[in-house]
Design a protein that fits this description.
Blueprint: H1 12-15, H2 30-42, H3 55-70, E1 74-75, E2 81-88, E3 91-102, E4 107-117, H4 132-151, E5 156-163, H5 171-178, E6 187-193, E7 204-208, H6 216-222, E8 228-231, E9 237-238, E10 248-249, H7 256-261, E11 266-270, H8 289-307, H9 311-322
Parallel strand pairs: 4-5, 4-6, 6-11, 7-8
Antiparallel strand pairs: 1-3, 2-3, 3-5, 7-11, 9-10
Zinc ion binds next to helix 4.
Length: 323
């Protein structure tokens, strides 16, 4: 990737204030360019893996605060931070979700919740687990969608929720749904992004959720993309992709599982498990930039598609998911 040559992890925070990287093929879309920069910043060594309760996690939140403000998201409550406690073994731990609101123009009282977990794993010895694909990529995707909704007012309102403590047991998503900031009946849909930047050989991007939102088949049929968009089977284990040794339980793979259990329809985008999954080698230098860009564009297509669904249809999906 020619782009990689001009980005030095020690300088990534400075890049925020300076001109975008100019090496390699120019990306003329400033929102895609910003997403690539977001991914690199969140996966830099300074964030040390963004593990829950660490200074790296705090650094990631500081960055998200700055990005949410720049994207003109509104806080829900006093600020963008939603602290919560959760149990781990016999001890009580603290986590902090980051939440921002974009008010919709047609159905402002109904909400699509975009989620991506920003936490990853603690360093072990001197080994940092940067979690570039898992899940700096998804958080960069969340910011990209937030930017798109700034450029054009969406029909529905959006809650952009960067969750903490996903890796420890989906605890940030659980805390959000235990005390949602708006009445639960006004939450229509979850759009969850977790690992969206590496297609490997097969260039596949999985989309789960059609069990509760059968219309997803229509979206998959009409989507314009160079990627192999594959509808994953919800709720059962499937062995998919050559690189994965383990079965993937798509319905429970990430934060959307909490929304599903709470009776909400969801769209989940993610790649297959790859050899660097949960290793210190999940670095931004291994990201497939062309794939990441194509994934972002496809995910934004899905957001626009969902945003154009009539309220009655989303409410019907919500009712049938709850049963
Ligand atoms: Zn993850």
């Amino acid at each position: 990737m020619p782009w990689h040559k001009c980005a030095n992890s020690a300088l990534l925070l400075l890049m925020l204030l300076s001109a975008p990287c100019r090496g390699g093929a120019p990306d003329t879309d400033p929102l895609l360019q910003a997403a690539w920069q977001d991914l690199q910043v969140l996966a830099a060594d300074q964030m040390a893996g963004r593990a829950t309760g660490t200074t790296g996690s705090q650094a990631a939140r500081d960055y998200l605060h700055q990005r949410f403000a720049a994207l003109q998201l509104q806080p829900v409550g006093a600020d963008f931070f939603q602290p919560f406690t959760f149990a781990q073994g016999f001890s009580e731990r603290q986590g902090v979700n980051v939440l921002g609101l974009r008010r919709g123009c047609t159905y402002p009282d109904y909400f699509i919740v975009v989620t991506a977990h920003y936490d990853h794993l603690k360093p072990r010895g001197n080994k940092i687990f940067n979690g570039a694909d898992d899940n700096a990529s998804g958080v960069a995707g969340l910011l990209y969608l937030a930017a798109q909704t700034l450029a054009q007012c969406p029909a529905y309102s959006y809650l952009f929720l960067a969750t903490d403590a996903e890796e420890l047991g989906l605890d940030g998503a659980k805390a959000f749904l235990a005390a949602p900031p708006v009445p639960r009946a006004q939450l229509l849909l979850n759009l969850n992004l977790d690992m969206i930047s590496r297609g490997e050989q097969n260039q596949r991007l999985y989309l789960a959720g059609k069990k509760y939102l059968p219309q997803l088949s229509n979206f998959a049929a009409q989507a314009t993309t160079s990627l192999k968009l594959t509808l994953a089977h919800d709720g059962r284990q499937s062995r998919l992709g050559r690189s994965s040794n383990a079965a993937v339980d798509w319905a429970n793979a990430s934060d959307h599982a909490v929304f599903r259990r709470a009776g909400l329809p969801f769209l989940y985008f993610g790649v297959d498990v790859h050899p660097q999954y949960h290793t210190p080698q999940d670095d931004w230098q291994r990201i497939d930039l062309a794939y990441f860009r194509a994934a972002l564009q496809l995910i934004e297509q899905s957001r626009r598609w969902a945003d154009a669904l009539p309220l009655s249809e989303l409410q019907a999906a919500q009712r049938s998911s709850a049963n």
